[in-house]
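Lecture notes, part 5. Sequence design as translation. It can be helpful to think of inverse folding as translation between two languages: the language of shapes and the language of residues. The source text, in structure tokens, appears below.
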């Protein structure tokens, strides 16, 4: 794709000061012709879906190191420990009883295995406490089918967070009821399947996602008084702890090399699609920004790190590993960011309950004001790789993006290269480049939160509730994650 006419249009929209300084040159380069889409096509179509622990994920690490090397960006793989291996090898299910057919299913990450496990199929409503009360003893040793509200791009990210919240309540109820297995209706129509990890009862029960049409048919039959059963086989590759690696690209600062400005996106994905929106796009974006900084010969005052995380989808393990490895240097981290909402327009940044970041971000985005408007939102959010930086008190950001087509393709077979908004990805790269350059060169810095300030943030916001939904609360409460007391 050529961007020349498009670039001119965008440059004319930008509030470029009279003198083209470094940030304007960088922004202009991001909007010009670059290999960003070639990189993204290669990562998604050739490396493919890249679950941490899989050969494809190891290939993705090599791919990223090679891309940085081609761009003359210094880069290294930094190992970290993953707690458990989980991949689906094969899954099949058959409905029997009054009617017989073969529904489409996938296993939820961290589900237990099953070997032709046959049990009655029970209508679990929407999986509320009242639904399990109604089922009573009938839930025990049954496959319990739970209906899910439709997730589409109208409901967007709000619907996606609601699905996580609902599941966080349902999974423990099913475990307590002693079900043979839990069968979630897919939230997406047209037989679309996706992986939503079991973050709430990991490794403790069998959980399937069934195609929405199959699940609705089964639900209608059960409600019409028909008797159905389900036989399912879930074959897995599972194992204990192992080593994975993040890829860290680095451009050393010329004045304050010990001070770090860290921009991150996760390299891993799920395996049904090829991880284009989540999160190959933003990996390609960071590599491209590093490439253009080097190509233009720009020298930042602080060191810029481009962090391509692994283990994100299974519990934010790569960024946690980084925080543990670099704990002694966290005072020197001026900021740590995460971009992880596909290619929707960047509309501002979540500043994580650190109001001191807002004026800095406002100022750094001024050179790309024509690509806005931008509005910073100062709330803490859980769900991506800023998390451990937030618990460590390090100034952290998440790119806030328009919902676009993120939710409907989330973790699904359909998250492929064709879903990427190519023009918006270029604009987001320009926005992110301006922000990086601001953080890397400004005299000012936001202060790191103390342990007491982090605790206050947890207590005064819904941060704790969000951590529970994502299965992260125990790690904080039991002191495995978070800043030590001074
Ligand atoms: Zn993601």
């Amino acid at each position: 794709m050529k961007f020349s006419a498009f670039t001119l249009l965008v440059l004319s929209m930008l509030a470029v000061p009279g003198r083209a300084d470094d940030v304007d040159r960088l922004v202009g380069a991001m909007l010009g012709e670059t290999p960003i889409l070639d990189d993204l096509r290669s990562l998604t179509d050739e490396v493919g879906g890249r679950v941490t622990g899989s050969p494809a994920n190891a290939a993705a690490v090599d791919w990223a190191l090679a891309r940085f090397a081609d761009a003359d960006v210094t880069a290294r793989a930094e190992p970290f420990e993953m707690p458990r291996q989980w991949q689906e090898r094969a899954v099949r299910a058959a409905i029997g009883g009054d009617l017989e057919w073969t529904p489409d299913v996938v296993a939820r990450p961290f589900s237990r295995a099953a070997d032709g496990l046959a049990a009655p199929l029970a209508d679990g409503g929407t999986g509320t406490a009242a639904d399990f009360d109604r089922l009573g003893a009938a839930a025990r040793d049954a496959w319990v089918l739970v209906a899910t509200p439709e997730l589409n791009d109208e409901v967007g990210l709000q619907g996606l967070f609601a699905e996580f919240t609902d599941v966080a309540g349902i999974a423990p109820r099913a475990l307590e009821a002693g079900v043979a297995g839990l069968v979630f209706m897919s939230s997406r129509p047209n037989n679309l399947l996706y992986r939503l990890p079991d973050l709430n009862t990991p490794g403790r029960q069998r959980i399937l996602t069934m195609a929405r049409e199959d699940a609705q048919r089964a639900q209608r039959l059960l409600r019409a008084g028909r008797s159905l059963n389900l036989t399912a086989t879930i074959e897995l590759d599972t194992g204990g702890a192992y080593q994975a690696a993040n890829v860290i690209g680095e451009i050393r600062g010329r004045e304050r090399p010990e001070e770090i400005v860290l921009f991150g996106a996760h390299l891993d994905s799920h395996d049904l699609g090829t991880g284009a929106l989540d999160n190959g796009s933003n990996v390609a974006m960071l590599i491209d920004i590093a490439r253009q900084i080097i190509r233009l010969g720009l020298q930042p005052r602080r060191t810029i790190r481009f962090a391509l995380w692994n283990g994100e989808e299974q519990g934010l393990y790569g960024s946690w590993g980084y925080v543990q490895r670099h704990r002694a240097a966290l005072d020197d981290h001026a900021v740590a960011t995460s971009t992880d909402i596909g290619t929707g327009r960047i509309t501002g940044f979540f500043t994580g309950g650190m109001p001191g970041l807002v004026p800095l971000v406002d100022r750094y985005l001024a050179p790309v004001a024509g690509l806005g408007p931008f509005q910073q939102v100062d709330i803490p959010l859980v769900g991506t790789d800023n998390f451990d930086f937030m618990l460590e008190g390090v100034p952290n950001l998440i790119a806030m993006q328009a919902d676009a087509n993120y939710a409907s393709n989330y973790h699904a077979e359909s998250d492929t290269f064709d879903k990427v908004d190519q023009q918006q990805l270029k604009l987001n790269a320009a926005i992110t480049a301006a922000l990086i350059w601001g953080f890397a060169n400004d005299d000012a810095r936001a202060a790191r939160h103390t342990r007491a300030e982090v605790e206050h943030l947890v207590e005064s916001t819904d941060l704790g509730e969000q951590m529970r939904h994502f299965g992260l609360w125990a790690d904080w409460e039991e002191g495995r994650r978070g800043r030590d007391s001074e």
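The translated text above is only one of many valid answers, since several sequences can fold into similar shapes. The pocket of zinc ion is lined by residues 266, 278-279, 312, 340 (CB under 6 Å).
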